[in-house]
Fold this sequence. Notes:
The chain is an alpha+beta fold. It is 19% helix and 41% strand.
Amino acid sequence: MTAKELAEQLNGRDTGEEMEWGEAQDAKAAGLVVMYGYSDDNVELCGAINDEVGAYNGTTVYLTLDGVLQEPDCGQDYCPYFAREREKAKTVKAVWHDDGNPCWTFETDILHETFNIYEDGELFCVGIVFSADDL
């Protein structure tokens, strides 16, 4: 399965029905990551990376081969180890749009394919699918 094939398979679904468990397992086996906005404050990652990120009003997600790079809980304003890892990570900017649809879009330099998710017949999110190998 390629990123394009998976994006075509997911295209046109409704919120709450973005991916089935078996599809996430197939994506994982193929080394693909699916990323989409869920509700007004979450970004979901399924497949080779399985995680969710709080994204109220949007956020930048830092990704490595190990998954989502989490902020350190070291009690310091500046952690040099985290800063080094963040510089090496790939980024995906999750953009929340207050006005109009879609509500969620994603900006990244990672080679990806897109798919649309709808809510009540309106475009809600333009999700992305990419290869974990590109991280």
